[in-house]
């Protein structure tokens, strides 16, 4: 009798123990994902000297970063480079703080990225508009901007040969203001010249460089000089300097073409379109790939075929036949009928 009572008591204890264990498991099961959660993924952005307020490629890179923060839950940090000598120290700071991905905005950061990436092989880097090869921790986002440059060049050339468009000066002249004579700028301009001349080989195209990406006053002065020479359409590839180009077009009641982002909001009656570069798309895409352990080093290209470049919706001042001509050119670039070179035509780019 005593043995049976003892076994009975032990059975009760065992049942209670299993029950309590079961209750404990039931309570923790929903949190299994939390315990297996990966460490926080950190992404840093280092801007070029144009800064976040350039309404152009720095602005777009940050837009892609913000989308990644909202959609992917990544931790983010941004530093604006005030001068070119800041690049290396800004990149190094984030690498030392063990950010998973450090993004460098712009061709001018090439040397700094190449150096810092070697010093921190466990940190992933992305550089926009520059090619860094043979470094397994660097991804280079490159854009065939000669293609979208060609399209806005077609638009400019067709506008010059059209009649009845207000605010045209009738001089068959357009202007292009570049920041610096570097590949990401010249690719746009080379395409623009080819596009405009495909419509009219005799069109007069004035090309000038200011030497800076953060000088709106210099951009405005340069554009005003071009307008004084008969340019009724001015295209800028100059970052923050281009804000002054658009101001000049607005002041003189002529037309401007924006760059990188849709810049129509800066002067809705004057910016007829913008040559678009999907810096935000590229930034988000590479952040996501890196977070998903699918980081790709080397060149990653964005072009018309994958919607990496394009042109903004034209304003009403652009006649429908002109828009149709641009759309036809885009179709031919995509199917290979038109091949746009990024080589600067003779006589330009100096």
Sum this structure up briefly.
This protein has 350 residues and is of the alpha/beta class. It is 44% helix and 19% strand.
Explain how this protein is built.
44% of the residues lie in helices and 19% in strands. The chain folds into two domains: 42-143 and 281-292 and 295-302, Rossmann fold (3-Layer(aba) Sandwich); 145-277 and 319-335, Response regulator (Rossmann fold, 3-Layer(aba) Sandwich). Strand 8, helix 9 (242-252) and strand 9 (255-260) form a beta-alpha-beta unit. It has eleven helices and twelve strands. It has helices at 2-28, 32-35, 57-72, 87-96, 110-119, 145-161, 183-199, 216-228, 242-252, 279-291, 320-335; strands spanning 42-46, 75-79, 101-105, 124-128, 138-143, 173-178, 204-209, 231-237, 255-260, 271-277, 298-302, 309-311. The chain has 350 residues and is of the alpha/beta class. It starts with a helix and ends in a 15-residue tail after the last helix. Residues 1-38 have low confidence and may be disordered. The strands form two sheets. Strands 2-1-3-4-5-11 form a six-stranded parallel beta sheet, sandwiched between helices. A six-stranded mixed beta sheet has the order 7-6-8-9-10-12, with helices on both faces.
